[in-house]
Specification:
By secondary structure, the chain is of the alpha/beta class. Helices cover 22% and strands 20% of the residues. α2 (81-89) packs parallel to α3.
């Protein structure tokens, strides 16, 4: 028998084709089922809102702890009832300060719903910056684009969202608008310098407007200096670190949004490396507390997603309660 005979089916060709077709069909069905299960899980996780608690040792010796609620990337649509209810519950935390790092909106009618959801948090001292998705309505996009190198294109062609109304309402509630500006605020017996920039992802940031020693001029008697930005681009982090800010708060990355177990984030949608896509880190990454030109950095994984891609894997939506405590080495607070 020629060596090639073992490739011939023992049954007629048509029957072998049927068996092969059956295998292909079963494999396709199994793949479809696995894909559907993965998508269902990712959609479920995108609604598993989580409060994270992090301690940051940056206060002067002897100071009482300061509780800062960091909100980011809410991407609110008025029909998202579970998210709205969860946001309302954050008022029970009674933080000392709220920092909102942008991308609050995802719908033209979202502002009044957002304000209702924030509720008592608007009575707390606060500050905010805007993100690209506060300015422009979301568009349908291929989610795999985020895994490709940044081509520099930004969504600026969709209709504007009511960001002016959002800013006006936040300001009326007493929240400080940190759009390319510095200010001071007294919270919990401490004087804070707050500096923020407009969205770096859209290249709206004006770093010259907030450049200089954090404790020069209006911050001469400050106990703490915080930098705020929507997107944690390295140019922004570098300047805040050089200027002596104790910490920088940002969002934008969604923590990677679609992460893999044992690997973590695959992308940050900016030039920050994926290993620091969320959570508390030093900047520069290899620096230590006390190093000149270094700072703490907290990147929120955020509470939402683009409306067209409400999925997350191994990266639950979050808000973070940062408890600021005295730096090591000083006397304990009373």
């Amino acid at each position: 028998m020629p060596p090639t005979d073992f490739l011939r089916p023992s049954a007629p060709h048509l029957g072998g084709g049927r068996r092969l077709g059956g295998v292909v069909a079963r494999t396709a069905l199994a793949g479809a089922a696995a894909g559907a299960a993965a998508t269902s899980y990712a959609a479920w996780e995108a609604r598993r809102y989580t409060l994270r608690e992090v301690e940051v040792p940056i206060l002067p010796p002897g100071a009482r702890p300061l509780r800062v609620l960091h909100l980011s990337d809410i991407h609110l649509v008025p029909t998202q009832r579970r998210k709205i209810a969860w946001l309302r519950g954050l008022g029970e935390l009674r933080p000392d300060l709220v920092i909102d790092t942008g991308d609050n909106l995802a719908h033209p009618d979202a502002v009044p719903v957002l304000l209702d959801a924030l509720g008592p948090l608007l009575d707390v001292p606060g500050a905010h910056v805007l993100g690209s998705n506060d300015y422009y309505a979301p568009s349908l996009r291929n989610p795999l684009r985020y895994l490709l190198p940044d081509d520099g294109r930004r969504n600026t062609r969709t209709p504007e969202l009511p960001w002016r109304e959002l800013v006006a309402t936040f300001s009326a509630a007493g929240w400080r608008d940190l759009t390319n500006r510095r200010t001071t605020i007294d919270v919990g017996g401490l004087r804070l310098v707050l500096a923020g920039v407009d969205d770096p992802h859209l290249e709206h940031d004006d770093l010259d407007a907030v450049a200089g020693d954090a404790r020069a001029g209006l911050g001469a008697d400050a106990d703490l200096a915080l930098g705020v930005a929507h997107a944690p681009y390295l140019r922004v982090l570098d300047q805040f670190a050089r200027d002596g800010y104790d910490a920088v708060l940002a969002g934008h990355t969604h923590g990677g949004q679609v992460c893999l177990p044992g690997i973590g984030a695959l992308t940050t949608n900016c030039d920050l490396e994926p290993a620091r896509a969320k959570g508390l880190h030093r900047h520069p990454a290899d620096s230590a507390p006390g190093d000149p030109g270094s700072t703490w950095m907290h990147v929120s994984a955020g509470l939402g997603t683009a409306p067209s891609m409400r999925i997350r894997t191994f990266c639950r939506p979050e808000a973070t309660l940062l408890t600021l405590v005295p730096r090591p080495g000083g006397p304990a607070a009373d």
